[in-house]
Amino acid sequence: MRKSRFTEAQIVAMLREGEAGVPVAELLRKHGVSRPTYYLWKQKYGGTSVPELQRLKQLEQENAQLKRMYAEMALENAAIKDVLHRKL
Predict the structure, then answer these.
(1) Which tens digits make up the pLDDT trace of 30-63?
(2) What pTM was estimated for this model as a whole?
(3) Which long-range contacts (CB under 8 A, 24 or more apart) does 12-17 make?
(4) Cβ distance 46 to 15 under 8 Å?
(5) Residues 21, 63: one domain?
(6) Number of domains observed in the structure of the chain
(7) Range of the domain at 9
(8) 28 and 60 part of one domain
(9) pLDDT tens per residue across span 3-21
(10) Other C-beta atoms lying within 10 Å of the C-beta of residue 15
């Protein structure tokens, strides 16, 4: 996936400008963003703040780490069960 040239904080700031009453066309021209991109961002980040986004990203990283740990433990468990069944 292509990395955006805007950070999440910049995106939230841009959406806040739109909520403050700046016309969408002017906002898009000012920041050089297409209309579909703006509305995708609005759908994804609308109503969130920067600290909430940071916390969400932290939770996603923690979740990914836990999933990796679970996969490793499940693999070890399967290997141990395989060894035990071979001995019987």
Answers:
(1) 999 999 999 999 999 888 888 998 899 999 999 9
(2) 0.64
(3) 12/45, 12/48, 12/49, 12/50, 12/53, 14/38, 14/41, 15/41, 15/42, 15/45, 15/46
(4) yes
(5) no
(6) 2
(7) 1-48
(8) no
(9) 778 988 899 999 999 989 9
(10) 19
